[in-house]
Every structure is written in structure tokens, then in C-alpha cells.
Design brief:
Elements (H helix, E strand, L loop, with lengths): L7 H29 L10 H9 L24 H13 L2 H6 L2 E2 L1 E3 L7 H9 L5 E6 L2 H18 L5 E4 L6 H4 L15 H18 L3 E2 L22 H16 L4 E7 L14 E4 L5 H11 L3 E4 L2 E4 L15 H11 L5 E4 L13 H8 L4 E2 L4 H12 L4 H20 L6
Parallel strand pairs: 1-11, 2-3, 3-4, 4-5, 5-6, 6-8, 7-9, 8-10
Helix pairs in contact: 1-2, 3-14, 5-6, 8-9, 9-10
Length: 416
């Protein structure tokens, strides 16, 4: 299954634009002839030319030309064409589709998540823009992602963005038809890391997945939940290998997501079960910072980890995923991360008991809410907010545009 899928929605816009251009073509030719007879050699900008420019704009924004050659490397580059196109696409979308881009529930064969039928219903009704393929088989996920893509084509819906928990240590739990891979702590060399990362990437290609919630930047001190999933105990152990993992994915059109910010290795306990704490200095942030600077991962996942005893970044007994100090002030501003901020699963014990947690995570600065407890309620809240002129509305709109931009860079959106 290729990434440049036919998209009726995009074609409809293109055809309308071409009709308007053809109607105005005689006026353009006449304008050109007049300018040629002008003794002044400088080019003449006429009202007709402005009219043509306006005709290429949809009712809310301008649609720039596009040759379909964007790549993941364009996401962080200064590319005015990409930025203009993402804004233009945003302007064509209805508010349901806009709000949907920030919501990513999980799909599973028989447990832990929503069944395919419910995912398809949410997607058709423009309530979600992404899906996490949590537990199943390669054939199961391939079949249902193909069905979701066909659903998008038939109903003129922005194509879905798909993800997985593709850590080598966990892959046989997530994909039941796959054997064990070499876990991170047994990948002794960079070559080993690249080999295992390439295996995961190949599976993603086979299934049709876009995003991998891996690698970990956490150290291995927390044996309860991190352990063999980590590359080691220090920045020197972890960073070079995590960078190799990220590059193996992103150089081959797969998004890598660094996790679990601001660090799950130096805490006690499991955030799947309860809220865990970093006490005092956040020692693992330096590792995240090094990997972000050197490999430019397109995603970072924020964990459900409280920070206590830290004067500047104390989260007041709240998870980091709900803290603007952590998500916006530290990750986005101090570490200058400009990619997509994903939450860890919002049904986990470390966050599920907090009221309105999913929306509060958006307020903190997250871009995509993974596995919200109530996706439709979250959608309604986002939709209501983006209709206002508030600062939060502006923030949400920027998050939505980032998702559109990533879909363009992945080749999910195509004019073919």
C-alpha cells in the first residue's frame, strides 16, 4: 500500500481552480498583449493578474502550486510552499475535520482499545484524524488501515495518520504474529540498532503505518517498566543509539517519536498503574535535549510523570502531560522542540483520574491526544474552542496545521 493515495477532496479543489483559470485565460492573454505594446520594459501588474491570483484561492485561503515532492526533511526546513499549502488546506476544512486531527484513539483486535467498527465510525463522522494500531496481527492492521483509507476516499475525508508502539522489546506483544526482536539493552553497537530499527520500519511499511512511538530516551534504572526497553544508563549510552534509531526511520519516510519526556527511567513505579514522580532535578532531560538537537525527531511523547521538589518546573502533583511548565516552557521553548507533541495513552493510571485530562493536556501544549477516554467529548470541546478568537483557539489551530504539514511530508495527502 503506497503513501500517495488518490484523494477526491484534493482533486475537487484542483478541478474548481482550473475551471476558474480557464475562464480568466482570455483576459490574461489580452493583458499580456497590452503590456507588450507598452514602451516601458518593466513588467506590468494588472487587475486581471490579481483576479487570477484570487481565483486560485479558495473561499478561506490561497492554494499554492504543489508538485507533490515533499519529504519528512521538509517539515523542519524553511519551505514557504509547504507552509502556505498547509495553511490553505486548513482553510478548506470544516471544523469537524479540523478538530479531529488532534485525536488519536487506539484500535485492537480483542482488548485494550476500540474495535475496528468503532474506529471506522469515528473516522467517517470526522471525530478522529489518527489511529494507534495497538495489538493485533500484521494482516489485521493492514486490512483495517486499507479500509480506513478507502473510507477517506469515498467520503472526501482528510486521510488518517497511523501509528504503532514499535519498540523492538515489545513488538511481539503488539504484533502477535511476529517473533521476538533484540531488545534495546542487548543492541550493543550502532549497527545492531540500525538492523533492529530497519526490521521495525519494514513491518511498518508492510502494514502501512506512518509513526512509531519509539525510541526511548529513558535510562534503564526503572526495572519495573523500562528495563530492557532502554539503550542504557547514561546519556553516552543512550543518545548515539537513539539517534541511529530515529535516523533509520526518518530517512525512510517513517516518523520516530522520542519518549517518555521528561524521563521515566529515574522514577519508581509504573505510570500505567499510577502517577509516578521525578524528585528534584530532572536528570534525563539532558539526554532528550541531545537527541532532539542531533537527530531532529518529528515527535516527542510526554509521559504521565509528576515533577516535585523542583522550584522552576514543579507540576503541583499533576502529570507532566498536563503541565504547561513541562510541555510548553521546557520542551517547546527551552529545548526548542518544533515537532509534534504526543501524549502517552490517556487511559493510563497516571492520568486517567484527573478531570478533563485530555483537554487539559492540549492546554499544556500537546498537539495529539493518544487514546483519550472520551474521544467524541474531546472533539466537541476542541471544535467549540476553535470557533472562538481566544489564545487557546490560536494554539489549537497551529497544532492542526502542524498535523496537516506532517501528513503532506509523509505523502498521505496527494494531488495524484
Amino acid at each position: 500500500m503506497g503513501y500517495k493515495k488518490k484523494n477526491k477532496w484534493f482533486k475537487g479543489i484542483y478541478n474548481k481552480v482550473m475551471i476558474k483559470i480557464k475562464r480568466l485565460l482570455p483576459l490574461l492573454i489580452l493583458s499580456f498583449m497590452v503590456s507588450c505594446n507598452n514602451d516601458n520594459s518593466k513588467s506590468v501588474t494588472t487587475d486581471t493578474e490579481h483576479e487570477i491570483e484570487e481565483s486560485v484561492a479558495n473561499e478561506k485561503g490561497k492554494m499554492p502550486s504543489w508538485d507533490g515532492t515533499f519529504a519528512l526533511t521538509d517539515f523542519y526546513s524553511t519551505n514557504s510552499k509547504l507552509d502556505r499549502l498547509a495553511t490553505s488546506i486548513y482553510n478548506t476544512l470544516d471544523e469537524d475535520t479540523r478538530a479531529a486531527q488532534l485525536i488519536m484513539p487506539a484500535m485492537s483486535k480483542n482488548d485494550f482499545a476500540l474495535p475496528p467498527s468503532q474506529i471506522k465510525k469515528l473516522f467517517k463522522n470526522k471525530k478522529i484524524g489518527g489511529v494507534l494500531c495497538l495489538r493485533g496481527t500484521t494482516s489485521f492492521f493492514k486490512k483495517h488501515l486499507k479500509a480506513l483509507n478507502k473510507l477517506a476516499e469515498r467520503n472526501d475525508i482528510l486521510p488518517i495518520m497511523s501509528s504503532c508502539d514499535g519498540e523492538p522489546a515489545l513488538i511481539h506483544y503488539k504484533l502477535k504474529d511476529q517473533g521476538k526482536m533484540v531488545p534495546a539493552n542487548a543492541q550493543n553497537t550502532i549497527a545492531d540498532v540500525k538492523t533492529e530499527a530497519a526490521k521495525v520500519r519494514s513491518l511498518m511499511e508492510q502494514i502501512g503505518l506512518n509513526i512509531n512511538f519509539a525510541p526511548l530516551a529513558d535510562n534503564d534504572k526503572n526495572k519495573a517498566i523500562i528495563g530492557n526497553r532502554s539503550f542504557g544508563s547514561s546519556l553516552g549510552d543512550i543518545s548515539p543509539k537513539a539517534i541511529a534509531f530515529v535516523n533509520t526511520h526518518q530517512q525512510n519516510n517513517k516518523v520516530a517519536v522520542l519518549k517518555h519526556f521528561p524521563g521515566h527511567g529515574s522514577v519508581k513505579g509504573d505510570s500505567h498503574k499510577k502517577l509516578v514522580e521525578i524528585r528534584g532535578r530532572m536528570t534525563e532531560v539532558a539526554t532528550f535535549n541531545d537527541i532532539i538537537k542531533k537527530s531532529k525527531p518529528l515527535g516527542v511523547m510526554v509521559g504521565h510523570i509528576a515533577v516535585v521538589g523542583n522550584k522552576k518546573y514543579n507540576t503541583n502533583d499533576q502529570p507532566a502531560s498536563l503541565s504547561r511548565k513541562i510541555v510548553t516552557d521546557l520542551l517547546k521553548n527551552q529545548l526548542n522542540f518544533k515537532g509534534i507533541v504526543f501524549t502517552d495513552a490517556m487511559n493510563m493510571g497516571g492520568v486517567a483520574s484527573f478531570k478533563n485530562a485530555s483537554y487539559r493536556s492540549l492546554q499544556a501544549g500537546s498537539d495529539v491526544i493518544v487514546m483519550p477516554l472520551h474521544p467524541e467529548k474531546l472533539h466537541a470541546r476542541i471544535k467549540k474552542e476553535i470557533q472562538t478568537q481566544s489564545a487557546m483557539s490560536k494554539q489549537l489551530k497551529e497544532s492542526i496545521k502542524k498535523i496537516i504539514k506532517l501528513k503532506l511530508c509523509l505523502g498521505i495527502l496527494s494531488s495524484d
